[in-house]
Amino acid sequence: MGDWQAATGQGSDVVRAWDRVRANLRESAGVRVFEQWLKPIELVDGEAGDTVRLALPSAFVTNWVRNHYADRLLMEFRAILPAVRSITIETRTARPAPAVLAVDPVAPAPAVVEPSPKPAAAVVLPAVERPVLDARFTFERFVVDSSNRVAFNAARAMAEPGAPRFSPLFLHSGTGLGKTHLMHAIGHSVIAANPGARVLAMSAERFMFDFVQAMRNRDTFTFKSRLRSADLLLVDDLQFIAGKDSTQEEFFHTVNEVMAAGKRLVISADRCPQALDGVEARIVSRMGAGLVADIKSPEAALRRAILDRKMVDLPDAQVPEDVLDLLANRIHASIRELEGALNRLVAYAQLSGERVDLGFAQATLGDSLRGAQRRVTIDEIQKLVSAHFELKPLDLISARRSRAIARPRQIAMYLAKRLTTRSLPEIGRKFGGRDHSTVIHAVRKIEELRDQDREIDGAVRVLMRELEG
Ligand code: ADP
Ligand code: MG
User: CB 347: neighbour CB atoms within 10 A?
Assistant: First the structure.
């Protein structure tokens, strides 16, 4: 694009910018992340209009960098070269381009927005005009069970043609459990049904960055009309704008406008709307006005099923069942970690020419398997929970039913279910010989309360961190 040339002169500006971006990343990301993931990034020659093309040596690192650093890279570039409008992160392979992320069918000409009151040359065009949807994040590739069914069905409903049945859809879960996957799946599905649909996907961080940038350029008009023009707006990781007052205010107006226009809005966050600290009550209630769905931690069976599903996409890889069982049993923190472990195994096996078996898996993944192996016991849980609520450990086992004791007891049961492999009857026995239905009730109750009660949710988080840490 002409203005890119004008703005940057030659590609050497991009090269210089890239040096600085790298230096900044080395500082901010930490040595480990930088060495492992960011250092291998290469700049593909600069003749790609206003897009900076980056490449990595394998699909595995490409995905990782894309998931964790795409927005960040763009922000860093734009801080140095404002004319950069998007980046692509590709895999350098023999076959050209399969891993390029930008899904293009919707890509409208940059002039999609309503006519700007400013002369065209002065308009800082939005940095990403096309949705950067991860091609792997489709509904077909999402494995469903009771932990994520509600979120999955809600996402499907959001993608149905016609007027949306609800809006916004608010998805929340811990990290690496499928929120972004579902959001992108909605995007793919909407585009498949209607190739002309305008789909806009952005992280909340990105929203904030663009908004601040627009304010600085005294052109929030373009920013707003771009958002308003989206048929589907996906805002990921909302927790990042919590507490940022002016951005939050802008976000609120955007939400209202998008919804007033009958458009689809999907928001994700790492916690439920009520638990977002520093977010005003009216915003919370607006976001909770559609459908709020959470994704719970996956049980071993789902983790195993996801590995099976992943193997379908790795037809060349040979990973025996017992190794998959091992991964599914040992890695429970998140699906992202689970996938990461599988990818690492397969990549190392290919590089070393070795066969994947239990020994190879243990040798390759040693740390992550051991780390995850740390078993939390019910005794530890009881000790910690009673200390936290200033009770005697025996209180949790006693028959006493006062709220001050019953609630912590339910939390302890919930943690026992979540963090240990004990069965419901076993957990019941450990809590003074209670019935397994009491345990089920406790687990459901705490799940429900975590959605509604910020204090309880906070306490559970603190306890989990201590137990798992
Ligand atoms: P989040 O946005 O909640 O942090 P992601 O959506 O990025 O998590 O998911 C992390 C990884 O796990 C992605 O590669 C995603 O495809 C995968 N994943 C998560 N849940 C599922 C699932 N139910 N089935 C298949 N893959 C999943
Ligand atoms: Mg995500």
Answer: 16
Q: Which atom of ligand 1 is nearest to the CA of 141?
A: 25
- Look at the chain and count its residues: 469
DSSP state of 282: H
Instruction: Show the ligand 1 pocket: residues with CB < 6 angstroms.
Output: 67, 137, 141-143, 148, 173, 175-181, 306, 309, 335-336, 339
- What ligand has the least distance to the C-alpha of 298? 1
Residue 201: nearest ligand to its CA?
Answer: 2
Instruction: Give this prediction's pTM.
Output: 0.61
In this model, does residue 122 exceed pLDDT 70? no
Q: Domain-by-domain residue ranges, the chain?
A: 3-101, 139-294, 300-372, 378-468
β-partners of residue 199 are: 232
Closest ligand 1 atom, residue 143 Cα: 24
Closest ligand (CA of 237): 2
Q: Is pLDDT at 149 greater than 70 in this prediction?
A: yes
Would you state the structure tokens that stand for residue 6, as one six-digit string?
A: 């004008």
Report pLDDT digits (tens) over 23-43.
Answer: 888 877 777 778 878 888 988
User: Nearest residue CA, atom 14 of ligand 1?
Assistant: 336
Nearest CA to ligand 1 atom 5: 178
Domain 300-372 sits in CATH at 1.10.8.60
* Band of residue 208 on the pLDDT scale cut at 50, 70, 90: confident
Cβ atoms of residues 288 and 170 within 8 Å: yes
CA of 15 to the centre of ligand 2 (A): 30
Distance CA 168, CA 165 (A): 10
Distance 367 CA to ligand 1 centre (A): 22
Return the CATH fold of 378-468: Chromosomal Replication Initiator Protein Dnaa; Chain: A; (1.10.1750)
Strand partners, 43: 54
Provide CATH code, domain 3-101: 3.30.300.180
CATH architecture of the domain 139-294 equals 3-Layer(aba) Sandwich (3.40)
> 356-376 pLDDT, tens per residue?
999 999 988 887 776 555 578
Per-residue pLDDT band at 47 (split at 50, 70, 90) = low
Token representation of residue 87: 């980046």
Distance CA 154, CA 291 (A): 8
The string of pLDDT tens digits covering residues 210-227 is: 888 888 888 888 888 888
